[in-house]
Design a protein that fits this description.
This protein has nine helices and 21 strands. It is of the alpha+beta class. It has a six-stranded mixed β-sheet with strand order 12-13-14-11-3-15. It has a six-stranded antiparallel beta barrel with strand order 16-19-18-17-20-21. Strand 6 and strand 7 form a beta hairpin. Helix 5 crosses helix 6.
Length: about 375
């Protein structure tokens, strides 16, 4: 099959290729987007086929577009804590946490997976945003902190799905099965040093491999594909079907810096016992909690025919009885497993209860959305922890 015609994408040196770019071309990607100024393959097969491979087999996904913000230096812990309202003292070296990076008004700048690499060294795997510049700007407000801020070239790739465990055992040995969810360890794959984490953006069991030598991208990709042959490994793009089923949010689509963790259901990531000077956002978040939020991001089911694809724009939502716009549908897609349209919608608090309905103007005509608990699948997150 021919490779994707990159002439269809405007190119230039400002947009970077991932270390796996050349290797992924051999698997005939069907399209690209630009994420954190890098070319990002969106799929290699139909979205439904990739969803099936993720549920029943094992998938390989280049996520090195998740640029790694590294905070280090003698005051690395102090500065990292300024960025997030989650209490980092509860994260051991060797452990990771899902966190929000928030501004002084409580707005979410990013929602990365953070790993504590050393006592004062932290990695933040960033969604597509300006969090690196945000951190560098914040450093100017704390000139007395001895801290180094840089983008670390570690090029993560995800191995996800129920057969990811035996594949990883074949690559690095059975001791990998001892690693707990959201922990990490160093290893070698074909003599190439890597960091392996028990994380992923799929709601399935899986791992991420951080490549410490980006010049070895093709070698690592080929090693993963070779080891995955007995398990019918498939390269994929992001599975929006599975991530919406699992209640995973996409920064920039489902929330931006205009939203705070309490509105998006991530209050668990805020330690309200932190002193106000420990984190730049904690005072604002304490105030927001005391006053109460006025809107909420909720799960919703949508009636009518199956959506043919993920929504391309945010859809306006209205009260069921008419009136002015009261919110937006941020992500919406058809789940072939659940046999219904599902997604997320911003609504005022009086509608943020199960069974409430909204009228939605979708790209495929008007629909009725019904507020539904999320995650839509595996609400206790037993699958990725297993």
């Amino acid at each position: 099959m021919p490779t994707f015609d990159m002439s269809q994408v405007q190119r230039g040196a400002r947009n970077r290729r991932t270390p796996y770019y050349e290797a992924t071309q051999r698997s005939s990607p069907k399209g690209f987007t630009v994420y954190n100024h890098m070319y990002f393959p969106i799929r290699f097969d139909t979205f439904e086929a990739e969803f099936d491979a993720l549920l029943n087999g094992v998938t390989l996904w280049d996520v090195s577009v998740e640029r790694c913000l590294e905070i280090s230096g003698p005051d690395g812990f102090r500065f990292a804590q300024l960025l997030t309202p989650r209490n980092l003292s509860k994260c051991a070296v060797g452990q990771g946490k899902y966190v929000t990076i928030c501004d002084s008004d409580g707005g979410v700048i990013n929602d990365p997976v953070m790993t504590r690499m050393e006592e004062n060294t932290f990695w933040f795997a960033l969604a597509s945003s300006d969090a690196l510049l945000f951190a560098r700007g914040l450093k100017n407000a704390y000139p007395n902190l001895n801290v180094t801020i840089r983008e670390r070239e570690v090029a993560p790739v995800q191995i996800q799905g129920p057969k990811s465990k035996p594949l990883m055992v074949d690559l690095v040995g059975p001791e990998i099965l001892e690693m707990k969810y959201y922990w990490w360890r160093r290893a070698e794959i074909r003599g190439i040093p890597v960091v392996i984490t028990r994380t992923g953006w799929t709601s399935e069991v899986g791992y991420e491999v951080y490549l410490l030598d980006p010049s070895k991208g093709t070698e690592i990709w080929e090693a993963l594909m070779e080891a995955g042959k007995p398990y019918n490994v498939k390269p994929t793009g992001p599975s929006d079907i599975r991530r919406v089923e699992g209640g995973i949010l996409n920064w920039g689509a489902d929330m931006t810096y205009e939203n705070n963790p309490l509105e998006i259901g991530l209050e668990r990531l805020v330690d309200f016992k932190l002193p106000d000077d420990a984190c730049i956002s904690i005072a604002a978040l304490k105030r927001i909690k005391a006053e109460g939020v006025r809107r909420r991001l909720v799960g919703a089911e949508f009636d009518g025919q199956p959506f043919p694809e993920l929504n391309n724009v945010k859809w306006p939502a209205y009260r069921a009885d008419g009136g002015e716009e009261i919110g937006k549908v941020t992500s919406a897609i058809y789940s072939p497993r659940l046999k219904r349209n599902i997604g997320y919608c911003w609504v005022p608090m009086d509608l943020a209860k199960d069974g409430s309905t909204v009228r939605v103007e979708s790209e495929w005509g008007p629909r009725t959305g019904t507020v539904t608990p999320m995650p839509f699948v595996d609400p206790d997150k037993r699958i990725p922890v297993s």
